[in-house]
Amino acid sequence: MSEATDLKGWTDGADAILYQSCGACRHLWYFRRAFCPSCGDASPQTHKASGNGVVYSATVVRRAATPEAKAHVPYAILLVDMAEGFRMMAHGDSDLRIGDSVAAEFRPFTGLRTPYFVKA
């Protein structure tokens, strides 16, 4: 399924962002799947991202969606175009704006260490 099955990302408890690519159609995507969402090929390759990107969109959450998130309000949610060519959603500094260059850190949020972007 992957050339790097031993890679662990933040959803596995490691401080890393993983993405996948398709050898058949060259599509890139974030959040692991057993197949390419573009062409259906069943042999995606997993890669570790650099953590660098550019803010595509930003919003500030002022009402917590869950009781656990209430302690973090207000918090920023970003869409980040990563240097490798995929887009991901993550938390980040509230003063980030569209077009800002950012770098990923990992910070606690509702009991998990999640990607958190700061100005690069």
Automatic annotation (TrEMBL):
InterPro entries: ChsH2_C (IPR002878), ChsH2_Znr (IPR022002), NA-bd_OB-fold (IPR012340), Thioester_dehydratase-like (IPR052513). Transmembrane segments: none annotated. Residues 16-42 form the ChsH2 rubredoxin-like zinc ribbon domain. Residues 48-107 form the ChsH2 C-terminal OB-fold domain. Pfam families: OB_ChsH2_C, zf-ChsH2. This is Putative OB-fold protein. It comes from Afipia massiliensis.
